Amino acid sequence: MTNVLTLAFVGAVPIGVAFVLLAGLRWSAARAMGVGWLLAGGIGLSYWRMEPDWLVASAVYGALQAVDIILIVFGAILLMNYLEGSGAIATIRWYFGRIEEDRRVQLLLIGLGFMTVIEGAAGFGTPGALAAPLFIGLGFPPLAAAVFGLFFNAPNPPFGAAGTPVIGGTGAVIEPALSGSMGVAEFLSMVSAWSGVVTGVTYVFWGLLGVLFLTYWFDDADGGRSLGDAVRSTLPIAPFAILLGTVTGGTQLLIAWFIGPALPDIAAGFVVLAVGLLLANNDVLVPEREWEFPDDSTWNDAWLGGLELDEISRDRPKKEMSVLLAWTPYLLVAVALLLTRWPDLSVAGTDVLAWIQSFSLSIESILGTELGYTLQYLYLPGTMPFVPIAVLTGFLHRMDADEMGAAWRRSVEQVASAALTLVIAVSMTQVMIQSQTNAAGLLGMMEALSRALAMGAGGLLPVVSPWVGAIGSFMTGSNTSSNILFSVLQYDAAEAVGLSRTIVVSLQNVGGGLGNMVSVLNVAAICGVVGITGREGDLLRKAVVPMAIFALFAGLFGMLLTYVLVPGLF
């Protein structure tokens, strides 16, 4: 029998080469994953001696699984483009600019509220891309806008784009690992719940930590600021920050636990916005003394990201519609997801959830194998409710035909490259998973990697799991892609060492979110949006600090859950 470590080394080649091409040579994700796919197929045929028809069926099965994710991403981006085209996003930006001038309050309302709603509705880097220009419009230095566009996009990606990382990421690959021990839907519900526990508790202190970094990094452009000064500037806003963090995390946890992964971010974002705006408008828990950046004439080159002051747009967007009307599409999405995901909701004696899931298209056998595929087209958030509400938005916001057509064209263009990457990545992962069926009598590639991870981490696996998830999103820029690559690996590793598979896969999901803060793709994208391309190093040096704090906390909290609080969990 071939040594497990040897199998793991060979099995790691497709992922390892793809990561080197992505991060080292800066290839596009589609090209890098394409090379990984070719290597997985070649190794599967030669080393594992997979039957050609089984390998092709596995690849096709993975490509079909990617269709679910692509439909969700398309629907989310389509709605976002309708809102951009109609002026709704401009109205939302205008509104934030007139609420409160204390930079700490602005940071918390946008980071905990606005960005969480956008992550829940769109995901895939959209929150940072929208929030960073908003921060600049409010008067934040470009570097600060980019840093906090990444910082607050860490505890919410595990439920991004209506739960895509759980539903379309882990859900796309986990069935073979479960081996009938539990249904996929039931396991994903548990992953949603325990991911919500970890991120919900994190949110309690995340806003306060953000304010601490704001006042430490951006109070003195000459670098004369001390940690003690930052703490003194943070303490007055602490009650406000902790309350909003608790509201965000508590709402996210409750929705994730009782309803599922599709709604936690949208619900949490709206609730914290309502609470935060109510408090800010009535000066409740808001310090009397406002905190402000130093005069922009003193900002150094790093803060400006190489820009000149006259290159930074400070014009507040014009109000083009009422604030309520601007937010209405997101409110409709939240209501629709709530009604269609509520486990026990019945209408006229009919179980709503079961009725929606009954609408499906199926392929019973792919290329004559035991692999099959089912598309529950009304249950996917992309097709219901994102696309219908996007179309409705066009009429609600009185968009003309050209504006609506432009929204569709932009969405197709934006999704096309991501779709190719997702098809290749999921297909490659399925080839690696299904290589367990082979003529060589070997462990499958993913199972060998899992056993090697289990051997290396042992009982400390919960500490390691968030870092594995973070590595996945660091390279791919996506919580969903990280879950596709590593959910099965983490599940099998937990099973091998006798630890909770649910907790470990949940930590993988959480790790995939925190890795977004330092993702090569996300950092480059947000620098491009802000206009400070070439200053990615300045941004990374700051973002890596909260990322490490989050990863350490998640790992230690995972150990507490695994060994003390819920030691017997599946």
Descriptive notes:
- There is one protein chain.
- The protein has 25 helices and four strands.
- The strands form two sheets. A two-stranded antiparallel sheet has the order 1-2. A two-stranded antiparallel ribbon has the order 3-4.
- With 570 residues, it is mainly α.
What order do the SSEs take from the amino end to the carboxyl end, as H and E? Answer: HHHHHHHHHHHHHHHHEEHEEHHHHHHHH
Largest sheet: 2 strands, antiparallel
Across the major sheet, the strand order is: 1-2
Report how far apart the termini are.
Answer: 30 Å
Radius of gyration, taken over Cα atoms and rounded to an integer in Å? 23 Å
Quaternary state of this entry equals: single chain
Number of helices: 25
Strand content: under 5%
Q: Given the C-alpha coordinates, what overall shape results? A: globular
Helix content percent band:
over 70%
Which structural class best describes the helix and strand composition? mainly alpha
Overall pLDDT level: 85
Total beta-strand segments: 4
Stretches where pLDDT is under 50 for at least 5 consecutive residues are: none
State the main characteristics.
two-stranded antiparallel ribbon, mainly alpha, two-stranded antiparallel sheet, single chain, 570 residues, 71% helix
